[in-house]
Each structure stands twice: as C-alpha cells, then as structure tokens.
Amino acid sequence: MKLERELNAQEEKRMQAMVPTQQHGSHSLGYAILAAASLIGSALLVSVDSTYSLLGMVVVLILLFLFIRTSNVGIR
Q1: pLDDT score, position 54
Q2: What pLDDT does residue 63 have?
Q3: Of 73, 45, 74, nearest to 59 (Cα)?
Q4: Nearest to 45, CA basis, from 33, 34, 55
Q5: pLDDT of residue 65
Q6: Which of 3, 30, 53, 66 lies at a CB distance of 3.0 to 4.6 Å from 45, suitable for a disulfide?
Q7: How far is Cα 32 from Cα 48, in angstroms, rounded to an integer?
Q8: C-alpha dist (Å) from residue 56 to 3, 27, 53, 72
C-alpha cells in the first residue's frame, strides 16, 4: 500500500513536469506557422507594392525571433 502511494505520487510529479514542455512546443510551432504564412503573403505583395512587402518582412522577422526564443525555453 505504501509503495503504491509513493509510485502514484512520483507519477503525478512526472506528469506535472511534462505539461509545461508540451505547451512551449505548441507556441513555437504556432510562431513558425505564422512566420511561414507571413513570408508567403509578403512574397505575393511584392507585385502590388514593395512597401507592404517590407512591412510583411518585418512581421516575419518578429515571428522568427519569437519562434527561436520560445523553442530555446524548453532547452534550458
């Protein structure tokens, strides 16, 4: 009985430690998807107006920075 309670407590601690890692992965994946979509949108806007394309590239750079920052959080 005591061994079973100890094993259950350790399993709960392990599960709590795994949850934050999974959340960081989903954030970094979201930033990567948004950066890719913004890059495609910026490429399409080159033919319309280069000002909008440059603004889109700034958004892409910001999203890439956020992607790198959130993907490195799980490594530390």
Answers
A1: 92
A2: 92
A3: 45
A4: 55
A5: 92
A6: 53
A7: 25
A8: 58, 21, 5, 24
| pLDDT tens digits in sequence order for the chain, 76 residues long | 888 888 888 888 877 766 555 555 577 888 889 999 999 999 998 888 889 899 999 999 999 999 988 887 655 4
Domain span holding position 27: 2-74
Domains held by the chain: number: 1
DSSP H or E run through 54: helix 50-73
Report d(CA 64, CA 67) in Å as an integer.
Answer: 5
**CB neighbours (10 Å) of residue 73?**
13
Other beta carbons within 10 Å of 63: 20
- Amino acid identity of residue 11, one-letter, is E
Alpha-carbon torsion, ordered 41, 36, 76, 7, to 10 deg: 120
